[in-house]
Structure formats: structure tokens, C-alpha cells
Amino acid sequence: MRRRREEPGWPRGAPPPRWARLAPAVALVVLVFVQSITPGDVELGYFLAGLPPVAAFAYGATGTALFAATVLVLVGLPSLGIAHARGSDLATVAAIGLLSVVVAWVRKRRDAQLVSVRTVAEAAQLAVLPPVPERVGAVGCAGLYRAAQHGTLVGGDLYDVRAGPYGVRALIGDVQGHGLAAVGTVASLLGAFREGVLDDVELTTVAARLDRRLLADSAAVEHAELFATAVLLEFPPGLDLVRIVSCGHPPPLLLRGFTVSEVDVAPGPPLGLGLAGPTPAAPAEIPVIPGDRLVMYTDGVTEARDAAGNFYPLAARMPVLATDPAGLAPAVWRDLRSFTGGGPRDDVALLVLSLDGDRDALRGGGRGGNRGGKRPGAGAR
Q1: pLDDT (tens digit per residue) in 206-232
Q2: Nearest one of 315, 299, 305 to 380, comparing CA atoms
Q3: Is the model's pTM score more than 0.85?
Q4: Burial of 108 per CB tally in 10 Å (0-12, 13-18, 19+)
Q5: Of 169, 146, 172, 148, which is closest to residue 159 (Cα–Cα)?
Q6: 236: helix, coil or strand?
Q7: CA-CA distance, 100 to 96, in Å (whole number)?
């Protein structure tokens, strides 16, 4: 799960690329060569004094010191014919070299600190929203996540897939707000969902748990407007169906062969508003067969626009993208970037779930396997 856009140049704290390390040395050689073929009354050697500060951004303190010493020798020895520095001029070149060494030392130390901070930050964000495994029980999984805020791995979208005693359950959601301000809400919802996977018999009870979590988080904040939309999904053990609860979120898409249909599920109120009541509506039950793929997504996908202002047609493009050897989720991201000319400006999350035919893994789910054995009461439209 990679969630970061490409950065120009090289990231802070990372070693400079090879071309950047070679640039000062190449400039030094070029200047020396040009001076050697230039008439004696034209002196270019003093331009060498500007190279040690450049070297400070490519080398460490030791490398910069060696580079500065080389420059000092070249401009200080008249016999070389590069320059004819004397007295104060030579002292100036030496001072520039010394300052460059100090700059290189400070930069190296700062980069080490940035690497440490960045490593800790990435570990913390990945602990909140770890990569989706390729398989959970009998369900194949593929995830796509891109945070809108530059340099972050987690934004205002969330997803997770977990196996529990009542089957394999999945969640995708979109919390109010974007960027780091929404990460706390994302962490709260994911924590409540993971508890519900283990403890709650009914999928609607899991949704109620998430709703209470957001209500409790916003209770201490005056005029709080904390809410989230979400879709919860459950593959119950031993049944060829999937249960779906919608909390104000776009319904999943069902891809069967090359046919795409929108799942018919009654939309409930968003989480965190306290509107669901103690007994939320019954979940929709959709029949599934091995090979079916359910695609859950956030509005960062379907509300992405091209240069003409058109929305991204996810359902229309899925049959073609599903044939991509790299997988549906990576294909959607590449197509989305091409469609928008670089990528959406909103958080993007997409979760692809598919039955692989291993029914034994689902039947081993334990308690609550049939829950009445009802046949589907809703389908796909």
C-alpha cells in the first residue's frame, strides 16, 4: 500500500542521487579544462571558489573538506595556471571552504534527524492503517489508498478487512475533513471496528458501535461536527452471500464477469450524528459466487474530475480495467491519474474483495455462521 505522490528531486533525509554527488566534481573538472584552453589574460579560476558551497549539499563534512582543500590548492598554486590568488583572496577562498564544511555537517545532522522523525511518523501511520493483506479467510483483498495531504500516508479515508468468529468483515469510510486533522477520527473508527469484528454478532451492531464511538469523541467538544460515512460488509461463514450496511456512503459495485452493477442497499444516516437509533435497519443480503468482485470506494474516486469537469466513470471503466495483469486496484489508480492529469486532490480509497472458492475457510468461522440461514432479500441493480 503506497500512498504518497512522487516528489521532485530527492526526499529530505534521503541520500542525494548519483548525479547530484557527481555535479560538483564535474563542474570542477570543466572549469579547470576551460581555464587551460583560455588565453592567459582571462582568468576563470576564481569561479572555483563557488563550488565548495555546492559540494556541501552533495557530500558530508569530510567529503566537502577534501573538495574545499582541492579548490584551495588549485587557486593557490600559480604553477598550475588555474588562478593566482594571494593574501586576502586566498583567505577568502579558505573561509568559504570552511563555511561549506560547517554547512555540510549541519545538513548531514539535520537529514539524520529528518530520517528518524519520518521513520517514526510512517510507522505510526501504518500502525493506524496497515496495508490490506492479499487474503483474509476465503476473501481475496486488494486496496488502493492515497492521502490528499502531501507527505502523509493516512488522510480522512479509511478501510480495513478482518476475520472474526462471525465471518470476514470489511469497512470503508470517509470522515469529515482531510489530512492530519482527520487521522484521530480514522484511528477511533478503526479501533471500534476491530473490536466489533470480534465481539458483535450482527453487522448492524458493529455500525452502531462506530456511531457511538464518534458521538463519544465529539461529546466533549462544543459545537462539534464530527461525522463519517461508511459501508460495512460481511461474508458470513457457510453462506454464499454478503451482508452490507450503508451509513450514508456510496454503495459498492459488484463485478461479475464483465458486468458491473450497483448493489441495492438502503442508505442509512452517516455515523456520528446519532440518527440510527438503537435498532439500525437490517442489512442488505446479496448472493455471491466464487469469482465475484465487490468494489468499495470513497468519493475521492468517483468525484475526481478531468480538465473538462467530468466526473470519473468508475463503473463504466471497471470491466476493461479488471483485465489488467497488475490487478484492478493498481489499474484504477493509473487510470485515475491519467483521467485527472496527475491525480485527484481528495483522499482516495478503494477496496476490492473477491471470493476465491475456498469455502472451507469461511465455514471455519465459528459462532454465528448461519444466523437463520435466510436467502437474500435484496439484489443488485
Answers
A1: 999 999 888 888 776 655 567 889 999
A2: 315
A3: no
A4: middle
A5: 172
A6: coil
A7: 6
